[in-house]
Amino acid sequence: MPTLFDPLTLGAIALPNRILMAPLTRGRATREGVPTAIMGEYYAQRAAAGLIISEATGISREGLGWPFAPGLWNEAQVEGWKPVVAAVHEAGGRIVAQLWHVGRLVHPSVSGLQPVSASATTGPARAHTYDGKQPHVEARAVGADDIARILEDYARAARYAIAAGFDGVQLHGANGYLIDQFLRDGTNLRDDDYGGPIANRLRFMREAVAAVIAEVGAARTAIRLSPNGDVQGCHDSDGHALFTAAAAELQKLGVPWIELREPGPQSSFRATEEAPVSPAMRSVYSGRIVLNSDYDAASGAARLAEGVADAISFGRPFLANPDLVERIRLGAEYNAPDIPTLYSQGSKGYTDYPTLLEAV
Ligand SMILES: Cc1cc2nc3c(=O)[nH]c(=O)nc-3n(C[C@H](O)[C@H](O)[C@H](O)COP(=O)(O)O)c2cc1C
Question: Is there an atom of ligand 1 within 6 Å of 23 CB?
Answer without folding.
Answer: yes
